[in-house]
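Practice problem: predict the structure.
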Amino acid sequence: MLHQNSYLAPLSTVLCCVLLFSISSCSDSTSSDDPSADQDIPDLPQFEQIQMQTGAFEEGSFSVKDTDAAPGLLSGANPISPLRPLEGETQQFGGSIARMVASNLVATFEEFHQTNVNLLSGLFADWNRDDAELSGGEYIWEYEIDDWETGQTFYLQVISSVSGDEAHWTAIASLEGQFEEQQVVEGTTALDGSSGVWSFHVDFIEQANEVESTIAWSIEDDRLADYEMEIAISTEDYYNTATGNYGVDGNIATISDAQIDVPGLDDAADNLPVDVDLRDVFHIEWNLETEAGSLAIGDQQFSWE
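Answer:
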């Protein structure tokens, strides 16, 4: 099980940098010799649509202080600072300690998720379904990402095959001056986009930076119904992890079997007006309409109306 992470800047930085890169196709846009095969070309998951309903915690009593973005994909980055109470805001939500702590945990859990989503979305930002080449029953896309800040080039080969109502995906990457042909993505998605399991792993060897994540999701009635996340980010200086499950049943949303581990959590806990271990396993439940809810963390139980 993964733990909690407050140092999300490395992934956020990667995302921001990826979105700034220019992506050019490495091959001519061609499809199968059989025009009917075009209809079988799968679509990538719409990662940005995998969103949790956490509006009940938008006015939380904790903030995340961003650091300056790193200049390039592989450049060093300062981590996001530990969560700390805002000046004069510790009595938000009518003084509800339960909701303050829950807001802290939800925000950090969701930031891990969003950082991962942003990275994947950026990696495939200019992927074009129509650029597929069909070879041996597999659809293949090749393109490169140029980091204009560092002058390094990230080469990607995306491969997909369709079986029944599912598509299987892999992505192989190499990075000029860093590594050769790492498989960075493996996943399976429903052709209608309603569900999937997607794993990402990249090891920036020269910088001793590594990112590994797995997400699984299902969408019902145009909203995220079930979601599972496990992510780890490591560098020479720190190791950050988060894991947990999100689900919605009617008007009740939950984040369960969750755990977060990031540097600075002990200091963040010291700023709370209650004695809790923010690294412990937690369960949060809330009503999407009334926003009432409860929090269990370790052997501590809290609730709010």
